């Protein structure tokens, strides 16, 4: 039984590629893959992100180059403005996918106009764009398609001159070379997201195919004094840092984001998962749980908590 001090996963049904951002206004902003449009949800409670104030903030013109397969939207607040990065294509295959950028100057991103800032001309077709701001410099992270040598995607980094302009060459940070990164019929590294802690940057990414029960999270680690544009600055973990829990009936754990409890004292991981092996990907649901830190300063994400187990509410909620 749950009570007023606990909740149970999932917190949002049919919500793949969840992104949760907690802003200085105290609200959580939630986005997920809907395919044909972009919805933005604002909630005061992390456990109720599916039930917050919702608005469709972008629906593309039909038939255009970026009018199909709108995936993995992320909302960021950079240099005093709101930006959304999302994947789209023309209805074709992987070679037509690009990351697109929207901008909004209004204090409340559910208000004001969202302006199209274009599709980023990355050297490789790709998806899952995200932004790292480190020591005043913006960097763009994304998953680009290719052969590594197996066909799939790898994570690249590029410099940015502003939140919607990339510049210079791209650098490959991680490719799917390990067996656990090649499950489900493709070799995949995707969905990069950055976590900071005690002088280090952790880039957590998703590996294997999202339809495989073995979809899991991997991690790169970098000292904050190193150069993010050097592949040698990053150390790759040889094993997944978060993966399926058969006993708890949580499978295909991946495409995550990070947030904090309302009072800022707890770190929380947000991810999608399935409830059974081979379950249709349309049923990927958003789950959340707190995580801790190991003695060596690296994150300890633990193991996915199943639907039957109540979880204490985020501190301050």
Write up what this structure looks like.
The protein is built from no helices and 22 strands. Strands 10, 11, 12, 13, 14, 15, 16 and 17 form an eight-stranded mixed beta sheet that branches. The radius of gyration is 18 Å and the shape is globular. The model has no long low-confidence stretch (mean pLDDT 97). It has one domain: Tachylectin-2, Chain A. The chain is 0% helix and 49% strand. It is an all-beta fold.
Please name the CATH architecture. 5 Propeller
Hey, roughly how much beta strand do the residues contain? over 45%
Along the chain, the helix and strand elements come as EEEEEEEEEEEEEEEEEEEEEE
Q: How many separate domains?
A: 1
Q: Total number of β-strand segments?
A: 22
CATH class: Mainly Beta
Give the end-to-end Cα distance, rounded to a whole number of Å.
Answer: 19 Å
Counting copies of identical and different chains, the oligomeric state is single chain
SS summary, helix count? 0
Short description:
With 317 residues, this protein is mostly beta strands. Helix content is 0%, strand content 49%. The protein has strands at residues 6-7, 19-22, 28-31, 38-43, 53-58, 68-78, 81-89, 98-104, 115-119, 126-134, 137-147, 151-162, 165-174, 187-197, 200-207, 216-223, 235-236, 251-260, 267-274, 285-293, 299-300, 311-312.
Name its key features.
317 residues; mainly beta; Tachylectin-2, Chain A; 0% helix; globular
């Amino acid at each position: 039984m749950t009570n007023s001090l606990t909740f149970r996963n999932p917190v949002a049904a049919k919500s793949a590629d969840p992104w949760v951002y907690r802003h200085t206004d105290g609200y959580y902003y939630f986005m997920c893959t809907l395919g044909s449009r972009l919805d933005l949800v604002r909630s005061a409670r992390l456990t109720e992100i599916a039930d917050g104030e919702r608005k469709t903030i972008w629906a593309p013109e039909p038939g255009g180059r970026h009018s199909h397969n709108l995936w993995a939207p992320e909302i960021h607040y950079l240099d005093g403005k709101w930006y959304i990065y999302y994947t789209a294509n023309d209805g074709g295959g992987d070679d037509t996918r690009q990351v697109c950028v929207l901008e909004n100057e209004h204090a409340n991103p559910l208000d004001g106009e969202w302006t199209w800032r274009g599709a980023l001309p990355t050297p490789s077709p790709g998806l899952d764009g995200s932004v790292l701001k480190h020591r005043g410099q913006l960097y763009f992270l994304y998953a680009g398609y290719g052969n590594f040598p197996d066909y799939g995607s790898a994570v690249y980094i590029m410099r940015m001159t502003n939140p919607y302009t990339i510049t210079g060459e791209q650098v490959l940070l991680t490719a799917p070379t390990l067996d656990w990164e090649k499950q489900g019929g493709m070799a995949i590294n995707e969905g990069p997201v950055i976590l900071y802690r005690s002088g280090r940057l952790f880039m957590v990414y998703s590996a294997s195919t999202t339809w495989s029960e073995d979809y899991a999270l991997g991690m790169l680690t970098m000292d904050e004094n190193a150069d993010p544009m050097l592949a040698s600055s990053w150390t790759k973990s040889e094993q997944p840092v978060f993966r399926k829990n058969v006993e708890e009936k949580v499978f295909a754990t991946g495409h995550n984001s990070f947030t904090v409890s309302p009072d800022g004292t707890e770190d929380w991981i947000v991810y999608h998962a399935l409830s059974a092996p081979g379950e249709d990907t349309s049923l990927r649901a958003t789950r959340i749980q707190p995580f801790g830190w190991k003695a060596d300063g690296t994150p300890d994400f633990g193991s996915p908590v199943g639907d039957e187990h109540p979880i204490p509410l985020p501190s301050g909620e």
